[in-house]
Amino acid sequence: MQTNDYTNMFYVNGRWIRSHGTRQVVVTNPATEESLGRVTLGDVTDVEAVVDAARRAAPGWAGTPVSERAALLRAVAAELALRQEEIARLETAEVGSPITLSRRAHAQSPIHLFASAADLVERSEPDETIPGATVLREPYGVVGAITPWNYPLHQSAAKIAPALAAGNTVVHKPSETTPLGAYALAEAIESAGLPPGVFNMVMGDGATVGARVAGHPDVDLVSFTGSTRAGVRVAAEAAATVKKVSLELGGKSPAVILPGAPLRPAVRRALRSGFLNSGQTCMALTRILVDRARLAEAEEIVRDAVADYVVGDPTDPDTEYGPLVSKAQRDRVRDYVRRGQREGLRLITGGPDRPAALSRGYYLPLTVFSDVPPTSALVTDEIFGPVLVIQVYDSVGEAVDLANRTPYGLCAGVWGADRAEAVEVAGRLQVGQVFVNGAGFNPDVPFGGFKRSGIGREYGRYGLEEFQQTKGLVFGADAVGCGGYR
């Protein structure tokens, strides 16, 4: 069957079943404003079914040898690879990402994440012997994975692959805004032959289905990616059952360009990060910090760079920037642009109106305001769109203070005349990850936030360990053969 055949069904206990819910949402192509179809939303009865299936499957999956779990994860990666181009085009249609980005981030990345999770769990040392004791690493049991709309398959794989590798069963609640990729993932998992109940998927909104997954007493860990406001609600729901919560939340990441650092490549790289996926990226560098002496030069570099970008049809391989994901998101971001204008901020490129060359679609111009004070909402709020700001500093100490003066602490970029200078400043930033001198995303490096950007880490062995809990076995002196004690 094709993905669209399942959009009124959920994947539960190894088979596709119809939802108990009756509400539907229309999935819209944000570039054309045309319908891609309807998806049925589940209700709490559906949540009970998926959690029950995951709970019953948990002991058997936890007891499955690591080599068998790893082989099944590699089978999922192989199934995704077979559908790689189809998935890329599907995600371009529902997210609006340019096809070149979809091929890399939406289609290739999940393949890597499933394959690397298999490698990691095979290489990991689950038990640790210390004098008089052994420390075991065990799965939590049932993991609730609640994933966002901006990178649907990538974010799903970042949770599901290590959770399964660690021996947990999974209940997946994807975003109802961009749901089609989740069906493709469920199909791949079904084709790979995972045992019934090990992976389950239910569609629904956050207020009903997401909240019930987070608060369900038979869900042992909930892993959520999304806005900080939604993450607070997830944590509150989970608190009643004292379960572990992993939250990857918002960001307002600074790009700190130190005096003496090459300005043009730094500004252009920061713009690429800030505008990636039309600015709908939690780790985007959305605040460019430059020393006052080079402000005018930085503004000129921004104008020249933005003028060269190709904004348009996301199915065209030459397109670098597509639409925002929905009308609601476009309107929300446009309101911030208009707010900046009302505040009297200096607009150096872009604005609130759709580019004249585009007659339809949820597009906004790539927009940059300059010399923006730290109290502006455009500095403090996560806008999640193609709207960046330039901030000015008079000393490196002030640059660090400005970089840290937000409630967020997800990522940052630092450019210095040499690596040692950049590393020293990076160490003073209150964030979970720093890109030094133009470095890019590395899926083996721990990723997660300080402050209101989240709790926990994803990717690499750190992401695997997030889904493992430790158990200490302490041996008495009268035990036989226990670490040297007699």
TrEMBL record:
Gene3D superfamilies for this protein: Aldehyde Dehydrogenase, Chain A, domain 1 (3.40.605.10), Aldehyde Dehydrogenase, Chain A, domain 2 (3.40.309.10)
GO molecular function, one term: aldehyde dehydrogenase (NAD+) activity
Active site, UniProt feature: E248
Start and end residues of each Aldehyde dehydrogenase domain: 16-471
Top-level EC class as recorded in UniProt: oxidoreductase
InterPro entries in the cross-refs: Ald_DH/histidinol_DH (IPR016161), Ald_DH_C (IPR016163), Ald_DH_CS_CYS (IPR016160), Ald_DH_CS_GLU (IPR029510), Ald_DH_N (IPR016162), Aldehyde_DH_dom (IPR015590)
Annotated EC: 1.2.1.3
PROSITE patterns: ALDEHYDE_DEHYDR_CYS, ALDEHYDE_DEHYDR_GLU
Catalytic activity: an aldehyde + NAD(+) + H2O = a carboxylate + NADH + 2 H(+)
Swiss-Prot/TrEMBL keywords: Oxidoreductase
Pfam families, per database record: Aldedh
PANTHER family: ALDEHYDE DEHYDROGENASE, ALDEHYDE DEHYDROGENASE-RELATED
Family: Belongs to the aldehyde dehydrogenase family.
Protein name: aldehyde dehydrogenase (NAD(+))
